[in-house]
Design goal:
673 residues, mainly beta, eight-stranded antiparallel β-sheet, 1 helix
Length: 673
């Protein structure tokens, strides 16, 4: 090893060039595919860091040759770093590539001590421009620092004349009895190797001060807390200068009035001027005001029709108002009631209503019951017998819905047809369609002849979710993963309500296939989309209507742009007041791994694939198959992720925070790390 170290040092002796970079810097040395360190010789300062990175496919070692610096040891690696703490020449090599016939992969680090710099110094007291009264006495202080060693002393000077030396740790000297004049203060710092530096000069002025007598003005109020007195100008802490004129203004509190001044000021004039040619004591005298009071009587009709809020609260005796008080009365209808008008001493339909209490008043708020409107929904299938429509929820026994009820319409084509669009005031191709009823509505589900499809072009793997956007429901939601053959046969697995089972079937030439869950009550159909990118469908048990949406899996070589690690945040909603988090890793082959913890502490993990439209299906079974987390994650610009997840948690009386469970939707956001 000694021979090897000697050999390495001799190889680099002629290559050392002492052009030193800045202290504390980071330097890159590349382990090339030609099995060399580049650069072979690196000149740095004490405190600098070298990062070795591998540019080839073969791993290397960064091994010292009997150096006190440990470098990166003897392990094969692709990258490492080391910070040098002492000066010297440090040789290193790669173990596998130092043996014959290579003997080329060697390196040398030359570490030098940083050059000495003069100390820094600045006068901290007094500040430049300060003024003192003669004769002036004060402390002159400075802050001095040196990067390489201690500051040994600081010499202070006034107009170039030395005041003496100050030793660490405190650099200051006293100056006594400076006469009137202008002065320049400087300081010189010296470090332990004799380097010096001069502080920026500080200019001060010493002036002759004429003392003007000052007098205090004492102001009081009688009786206490019945009013206030404002003085203009405001009295300085040391008092007013002799012969200053001060204006006093008295202001009474509610229920009192100003009467007069007493003490060193007399009369009822307000405001009043006081000349400060001595110490002054002035009292403002107030007397109570007697106001008549008014009674407000409130009522509602009918009694259970609502309530009345009054502001401000009564300010007189026994719940009354002082005469002239302006109040606001607000009628608040109870559920299923509406406000009509006011009656009694007032007659108006304004709400809120402003009243001036200049007499006793009675205000009755009149309410009437509100009968909420209900609307009919008429669904027409065109052409007749080309399909059917599932409506969720069902109407009441009269065939109507309450105003603003959200209804889900799911269109199912018959054999040989496919769904085309919904026709109302505007067309829509969404299936199912969410519709808010705020009027009697007629909607047409239009189907069209389904063209024959080349089933071989649809062959591949499809991944997706079953979700009910109108009503999150764990029992009717989950995941579906199938493989479609060139003949239209499909086979795969479905997990709905935490229950896993095998599914299989056959698409006909129109791209239609029945879908039946043998374990459970859900059944429906699957439809191949003409763009070859996805399969849609609807399941139903007559009540629940989850929508199936499956995307063709992304080719294993088309995920490079999305590859990386992403940090995800699950937002808040309803009973969940804190956020959850997860990490999502995507390989260049489109394989996805998600691990996270929700706000209630539930942990989950998932393996899936990126779909052909760059979407990721989020699906995790929680709480022992009794709950779930389902949704779609979309990639936006700049590698951001956004989406929404349906989160269902079962009833659990043992839970302190969520004993009744919940079924909510939370936002999901994140970005590449």
């Amino acid at each position: 090893m000694k021979k090897r170290a000697s050999f390495l040092l001799s190889m680099f002796a002629a290559a050392v060039v002492f052009a030193w970079p800045a202290n504390g810097a980071t330097h890159i040395v590349t382990m090339t595919s030609q099995n060399k360190f580049s650069p072979a010789v690196t000149n740095i300062l004490v405190g600098d860091t070298i990062v070795w990175t591998n540019a080839g496919f073969v791993q290397h070692t960064v091994t010292p040759t009997n150096n006190p610096e440990a470098f990166c040891g003897t392990a094969l690696l692709n990258s490492c770093q080391w910070t040098f703490t002492q000066p010297g020449a440090f040789a290193y090599y790669c173990i596998p590539h130092f043996r014959p016939p290579f003997q080329t992969m060697t390196g040398l680090v030359v570490v030098a001590s940083p050059p000495n710099t003069p100390p820094t110094i600045a006068i901290t007291n007094p500040q430049s421009g300060a003024s003192f009264a003669a004769p002036a006495s004060f402390q002159i202080s400075a802050s001095a620092n040196d990067a390489e060693g201690p500051v040994t002393n600081v010499e202070f000077l006034v107009n170039g004349v030395s005041l003496g030396m100050a030793q660490p740790p405190t650099f200051s000297v006293s100056i006594q009895d400076l006469a009137v004049g202008n002065y320049t203060l400087t300081a010189i710092a010296k470090d332990n190797v004799g380097a010096t530096n001069v502080a920026p000069p500080v200019s001060i002025t010493v002036t002759q001060v004429i003392i003007v007598p000052k007098y205090l003005l004492t102001i009081s109020v009688s009786p206490e807390n019945t009013g206030t007195v404002a003085a203009e100008p405001t009295q300085p802490e040391s008092g007013y200068e002799s012969n200053a004129v001060v204006t006093l203004t008295a202001a009474a509190t509610a229920g009192f009035a100003f009467q007069n001044w007493s003490g060193d000021a007399t009369g009822a004039e307000n405001p009043i001027a006081v000349t400060m040619n001595g110490y002054r004591n002035v009292t403002a005298n107030f007397a109570p005001i007697i106001f008549p009071t008014r009674t407000l009587t409130l009522g509602t009709h009918p009694v259970n029709g609502g309530s009345i809020h009054v502001a401000p609260a009564p300010n007189g005796a026994n719940g009354t108002y002082t005469n002239g008080t302006v109040i606001t009365v607000t009628a608040n209808p109870a559920f299923a009631f509406g406000f009509i008008n006011w009656s009694g001493a007032v007659s108006a339909s304004t709400n809120p209503l402003v009243l001036k209490m200049d007499a006793d008043m009675t205000a009755i708020a009149n309410f009437v019951p509100i009968i909420p409107p209900r609307y009919q929904l008429t669904v027409i299938v065109s052409p007749t017998h080309s399909g059917r429509v599932l409506v969720t929820p069902d109407p009441n026994f009269e065939g109507t819905y309450a105003s603003n009820t959200t209804v889900a319409l799911a269109a199912f084509p018959e054999h040989g047809f496919r769904f085309a669009q919904w026709i109302r005031s505007a067309t829509s191709t969404n299936n199912p369609l969410l519709l808010a009823l705020n009027a009697n509505t007629v909607i047409i589900a239009e189907f069209e002849d389904a063209p024959s499809l080349d089933l071989a072009t649809f062959a591949g793997r499809y991944n997706g979710l079953a979700l009910n956007d109108a009503r999150p429901d764990h029992a009717a939601s989950g995941t579906l993963n199938i493989r479609l053959s060139k003949t239209g046969a499909y086979r795969g697995t479905a997990v709905l309500g935490g229950m896993k089972q095998i599914v299989a079937g056959q698409f006909d030439r129109f791209g239609y296939a029945p879908f039946v869950m043998r374990r459970g009550t859900l059944s429906g159909s699957l439809q191949l989309e003409s763009d070859h990118s996805r399969i849609t469908g609807v399941l139903t048990d007559g009540d629940k209507s989850p929508v199936l949406l499956l995307y063709r899996a992304l080719a294993l070589t088309n995920s490079t742009e999305l590859a990386g690690t992403y940090a995800l945040t699950f937002g808040t909603n309803g009973p969940v007041a804190t956020e959850g988090s997860a990490t999502m890793s995507i390989s260049t082959r489109g394989l996805v791994r998600i691990r996270g913890t929700l706000a209630d502490g539930a942990r989950f993990s998932q393996r899936t694939r990126v779909n052909s439209d760059a979407r990721v299906p989020l699906a995790a079974v929680l709480y022992g198959n009794s709950g779930s987390l389902l949704g779609w994650l979309d990639f936006t610009t700049n590698a951001f992720v956004e989406g929404a997840a349906q989160w269902t948690r079962p009833v659990d009386s043992r839970s302190r925070d969520f004993p009744v469970g919940f079924a909510i939707q939370v936002p999901v956001n994140g970005g590449r790390q």
